[in-house]
Design brief:
By secondary structure, this protein is mainly β. The mean pLDDT is 90. It has strands at 6-15, 18-26, 33-40, 55-65, 72-83, 87-99, 106-118, 121-132, 138-145, 149-159, 163-175, 178-182, 186-191, 194-197, 202-204, 207-208. The protein starts with 5 loop residues before the first strand and ends with a strand.
Length: 209
Amino acid sequence: DAAGDVVLENLTAIAGSARLSGKLRWPKGDAPTGTLGFSAPDLAEVAPLFLTELAGAATGDIEMRGAGEAHATEIRFNGRNIVTPSFTATTAEGNISIATLFGVPRPEGQVKLAKARIGGQRFDSATVTAKATGANTYRTAVKLAGPDLSLDADAVVTPGSSGARYAVSRLAGKLRGIPFSASAPLVLQQAGETVTLEPARLAIGKGNI
């Protein structure tokens, strides 16, 4: 246009049955703004683009707004019959915001799963909420409700190059009807597939370990 911005009025991308469409404005020397809607009736068709295995269906939209350091991207989605290598869910919904997408990204938001299976456990619902509290720290809340395991936890997560540090400030739940909780903050260090738990006290039923 006259300001030197690249304007895509009717942007459309198609991969199999998946479709992405909308309008973008790309200012010179800055990040794009606009809204794109997407629909993927068969996620298996686009799974190779994400270098993973996927099945199910999803719809949603991507909104990009702001400029410079104030630029942000918001992704809203709904899915059904989702199958991934790490979990399955009858329904999934989420709202994820990514600050400074083209600088140091800071994703935050909430994802809800219903009738899910995670790590071999069945859950009626699973909700994860994350809020960026710094350039590389996130305050995270996890709520799980299932027939054998329920969990309510808060933690500060600090990702690293090969793992993460979890400072759990609250942990409570039930495992096969037996209540458990952390009577003191827990700190876990993850490095690859190895998880180290710093000394802590857990209350299980009427006892402590």
